[in-house]
Amino acid sequence: MKILILNAGSSSLKYSLFDMAAGHTVLLSGLIERIGEADAGHRYRIGASDPLQQPLSCDHHRDALQALFALLTETVLPDLSELAAVGHRVVHGGEFFREPALIERQVIAHIEAAIPLAPLHNPANLLGIEETLRLLPTVPQIAVFDTAFHQTLPDYAFRYPLPGRLYTEHGVRRYGFHGTSHAYVAKQAAKHLGKPLAETNLITLHLGNGASVAAIAGGVSIDTSMGMTPLEGLMMGSRCGDIDPAIAFYLARTLGMELDAIDKLYNKASGCLGVCGENDMRAIHAKAEQGDDSARLALAMYAYRIKKYIGAYYAVLGRLDALVFTGGIGENDAWLRQTCCVGLTALGIAVDPAQNAAPAKPAATISPPGAEVAVTVIATNEELEIATQTAECLTRGASTAGDAAKSPCSAAPITE
């Protein structure tokens, strides 16, 4: 079974082609970026070969997809009819989707309805879906939602203490993000621990330029740090995370800032970037090592806020089997992992310095032998998780064909 995974951004298209019948082998992967600009480019890798790069004339996502399909047929997939499905990453599914869905008109309508909740992401995701449907009208298309994994949150965790009509009429609630990553590493952590996922309690830390934490009880998400948008929660590369909501009022009244300017400040000029002028953790460490006080402060703030969430989610779970670090920073920053866990021995959380210095991929335990809580480093693979969910969706759809109430994958795909 060959499954193509697409992640369409506003000016980019990331993709991976998996052969699910051959040990989830990646046949082709790449990124087409700067779509619509004169310097558009295409970086890709055939199997495990060295990466290749080529310039590309690409005015529209349709051009990007046509270039991708041409490359597929020239290299690893001579006939596109061999595709079992295309899996699309969709950032926001609102409350409509708890599982992946075979894309048909109603699914597209729901994704459009969620645009106000993800105005930067859902339109681009939809663009990729619509163009792929035009170019591959007979291939099943599956939407996999970042928010779906967190639809298991109880109401007392996802509701905000605001008037109820804001939730019932306008969807103001916690949705959570990075769901495919949290779902993937949760399954891998349970496997690494040798426990059934349904009996495993985890705190998963997805730490990259965007960052989030999830509390997972018996394999199910029961709380997460990102909220109605990806702005809430941890301090991030350029996002502020949790702050006093009244700061926005102060900025508007005292500095005369408009809403759009405050939005840009919170999302693109805050976090590590706002504190020390850098949003790349490697650059922040380099500045700190050179004695830069603002970089040292950024690192201290970043680690401190993670530690606060670890403590809070331990309290929520009541019992913890493993603390999981993942994402580009979580997988590679030994200093941060160590610092986040300092002082948590009363909770059974500790890090062995030697193991932490060189964790093995794809999974490693970095806590001392016999520790009450396993501290682990697990490499995330969101594309593989999307491919796996896409394959599972196809299987469910085939087994419940004609009964849309039983499966979100049983409706007929769009063919026009």
Automatic annotation (TrEMBL):
Q: Name the residues that bind ATP.
A: 14, 206-210, 280-282, 328-332
Q: Which UniProt keywords apply?
A: ATP-binding, Cytoplasm, Kinase, Magnesium, Metal-binding, Nucleotide-binding, Transferase
Concerning InterPro entries, the annotation shows:
Ac/propionate_kinase, Aliphatic_acid_kin_short-chain, Aliphatic_acid_kinase_CS, ATPase_NBD
Its primary localisation, in coarse terms, equals: cytoplasm
Q: Does the keyword Lipoprotein apply?
A: no
Extract the GO molecular function terms from the UniProt entry: kinase activity
Task: Please tell me where substrate binds in this chain.
Answer: 89
Tell where it localizes. Answer: Cytoplasm
What reaction does this enzyme carry out catalytically? acetate + ATP = acetyl phosphate + ADP
Catalytic residues? Answer: 146
Q: Which cofactor does it need?
A: Mg(2+); Mn(2+)
Indicate the annotated site residue(s) for Transition state stabilizer. 178, 239
What Enzyme Commission number(s) apply to this enzyme?
A: 2.7.2.1
State the superkingdom.
Bacteria
What function does the entry list?
Catalyzes the formation of acetyl phosphate from acetate and ATP. Can also catalyze the reverse reaction.
Q: What is this protein called?
A: Acetate kinase
